[in-house]
Amino acid sequence: MEVTWQDQQNINTFSRFNNRFHELEDEIKFAKEKCDNLEDAGNELILADEEMVRFQIGEVFAHLPKDEVETRIEEMKEATCKTLEKLEQEKQSLVSQMAELKKVLYAKFKDSINLEED
């Protein structure tokens, strides 16, 4: 079976999409964990009875008013959740593009090509 230049481009594109798909899965997992951790931190902060709490900024802990820390945690959580949504959308887009490429490549190569993961 002859592989044309366009076929090779489709195979390369599928490979790039597949690599990005796996990167996105890792990024999504990290973002979910971060979102959960921020949710837990917010809940713990509600239970705290101190007016000044320690808040990590970079590698340093600073004493900040409880209200300011609550605001910062909420902002960080919102930003993380928005990032998570964008990553999920990109993942869905990649899945649909990969499905289209699979159709094209399997139509031409049938059993001669394996695009499935084991």
General description of the model:
Binds specifically to cytosolic chaperonin (c-CPN) and transfers target proteins to it. Binds to nascent polypeptide chain and promotes folding in an environment in which there are many competing pathways for nonnative proteins. This is Prefoldin subunit 4. It comes from Brassica napus (Rape). InterPro entries: PFD_beta-like (IPR002777), PFDN4 (IPR016661). Keywords: Chaperone, Coiled coil. By secondary structure, the protein is mainly alpha-helical. It is 74% helix and 10% strand. The chain has two helices and two strands, in the order αββα. It has helices spanning 5-47, 66-109, and strands at residues 52-57, 60-65. The chain has a two-stranded antiparallel ribbon. Strand 1 (52-57) and strand 2 (60-65) form a beta hairpin. Helix 1 (5-47) runs antiparallel to helix 2 (66-109). The radius of gyration is 23 Å and the shape is rod-shaped. The two termini are 25 Å apart. The mean pLDDT is 94.
Quick synopsis:
With 118 residues, the chain is mainly alpha-helical. The protein has helices spanning 5-47, 66-109; strands at residues 52-57, 60-65. Helix 1 (5-47) runs antiparallel to helix 2 (66-109).
